[in-house]
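User: Could you check the structure of this?
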Amino acid sequence: MGGAPFGALPVPEDRLMRVALVVFAFGCLIPLSLVGWDSGVSRSVSLPQGRPEDCRLQEELPPERKNLKRLNNDCKKCHADVHAEWTGTQHAKSWTDPVFQAEISKLDDKGASCARCHAPRALWHKEMGEIPAARNKDRDLGVNCVTCHMLGNVYFGPFHSQGHGGVEGEAVYRSSTMCFSCHGQPEARKEHDQMTSYLDGKAWSKDGKTCQSCHMPMVERKLVTKKSLKMKFLIGVQPVRMHSFTGARRGEIVKGCADLAVVFEGEKVVASITPKTGHSLPCTTHREVVLTVVQSDGSGQEVSRETRKYTFQQGEALAPSGTTTVEFAAVVGAETARATLVQVMTKTEGRPEDVRQPIQEAETKR
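Assistant: Sure, the predicted structure tokens are below.
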């Protein structure tokens, strides 16, 4: 994904230079009232990483946009597939989710400190990887299109495009750093810190696997679904990432996220768990990973059942690399041992009952 994707028009170097000059002018010379910030106050736009330092607004952010809902609806008109995927995600529900709402109702600030990630302003206001700024308006939109792809009237994406008057291609969209803005802040909220265990695992980052590898799978399709624009910019089928942001609440990504084996070794039954998540398992609160080993006699009658639970923060979670082994005493008369591994989304306010999600199972004979 390093260059222009299949189906996208190449961008001449002189055009890139012109776009760079326009971006510089918008950031340093033109009042925000002229670039869509719905404010009569002249301010400089905070430019993203890699832009001139003297243009970056450090102490104060521009006023919030008043047209956020309209912007997201406009995205839907041309990027219908992407918008449909996003609508069903926890990103879209990050503020309205009943579990989250139940949690913040207990806080003195009623979630004001959580809004930085559950209802953030554009990530580009800060350095990528830094915790975002919170917005006060339209929090029900959660983490939306503008959050990741706009700053003022400038658009950003993983590759250059001629759409929107010129989309700025940024390599950070192909790295985990972008996700670390909210999922890598251990000092702020440990339960949302997947970065630490991902980096500790090392194998994934060394292999070039990123958060996007699992949570935004690659698909080949037309990124723009509006026919008139497809014709105008000759945008055809190309490899792009889905905006499904599939997480642990969706069972399909949980199934198979760890390998499991069980064997009889003398007077012991040994179960081995090897996570394939790239981060700890589980990786946040209100969920458990439960190993159950059932021993049965020759007639299939259960003679022993034992469990081990793995939790995040309050207990021991499974490490993102390597294998965890668990030993149980082999019961006299046991002929088979069956191991199951499940994730349990635990009962809490906003979730009336436990939700069990299968991960893996294995069986052995003595």
